[in-house]
Amino acid sequence: MSRMHKFRWLDIEVVVLPGVFHPGLSPSTTCLANWLAGESLAGKKVLELGAGCGLLSIYAASMQAEVVAADISHKATVNLLTNAQLNDLPVQVIRSDMFDEIFYQFFDYILINPPCYPRDPVDEADMAYYCGANFEFFQKLFTQLPDHIYEASRVYMILPADCDIQSIRHIAAGCDFQMKALWEEKHWGEAFVIFEIKLDAHSYHRA
User: Fold this and answer.
1) Distances (CA, A) of 89 to 9, 14, 123, 195
2) Mapped to the 3 state alphabet, what secondary structure does the chain carry?
3) Residues 100 and 147: beta-carbon distance below 8 Å
């Protein structure tokens, strides 16, 4: 977007700054938000990874969760801080490539609306859509994820049904993860699937 926009979901209103992915461009964010609305988040520690403008983070914070919002984009982190201030909600904002700057933290919930199309991004805008020609985003995700979850953690990821889910499942399995489809719905002629990501019990690192 070339100018700032406002976006509302239920009672949550956020602004979307130029250069940050707009949740109104695709229903994936609101689909995941609708799913999250069925969860009891009070007192839980929640990470939104690749948070963009932070709609999910703002909602989780409004439900009395302890929230960390992370994004690789400087523009997105500015947008995240702006929306936390506008909604007067405590959100810890971290600029991070995946988990690189998220140290020694475990989460009850991790929410991921990832780039999923195999092409190398050339700028920050591309990073919202393209995961690398060889699915490097997912290789890094499933390598780092075990250090931030425990057996009761819930990791939810939404993917468009037309992406190469089989390849993503293969990468997950290589890191001892299973992807269980929980929900599928069509919006605007496009289908989305929410997955729960679970690590094999013997692979958890937390003592």
Assistant:
1) 16, 12, 30, 28
2) CCCCEEEEECCEEEEECCCCCCCCCCCHHHHHHHHHCCCCCCCCEEEEECCCCCHHHHHHHHCCCEEEEEECCHHHHHHHHHHHHHCCCCEEEEECCCCCCCCCCCCCEEEECCCCECCCCCCCCHHHCECCCCCHHHHHHHHHHHHHCCCCCEEEEEEECCCCHHHHHHHHHHCCEEEEEEEEEEECCEEEEEEEEEECHHHCCCC
3) no
Residue pointed to by tokens 């909602």: 59
- Write the CB contacts of 170 (distance below 8 Å, at least 6 apart in sequence): none
Q: Indicate the number of domains in the chain.
A: 1
In a domain, 207, yes or no: no
For residue 60, what are the domain limits? 5-202
18: domain CATH number is: 3.40.50.150
Query: Can you tell me which residue has the tokens 């489809």?
Result: 181
What pLDDT, on the 0 to 100 scale, is given for residue 207? 39
pLDDT in tens, the chain (207 residues): 678 999 999 999 999 999 899 998 888 999 999 999 999 999 999 999 999 999 999 999 999 999 999 999 999 999 999 999 999 999 999 999 999 999 989 999 999 999 999 999 998 888 989 999 999 999 999 999 999 999 999 999 999 999 999 999 999 999 999 999 999 988 777 899 999 999 987 776 543
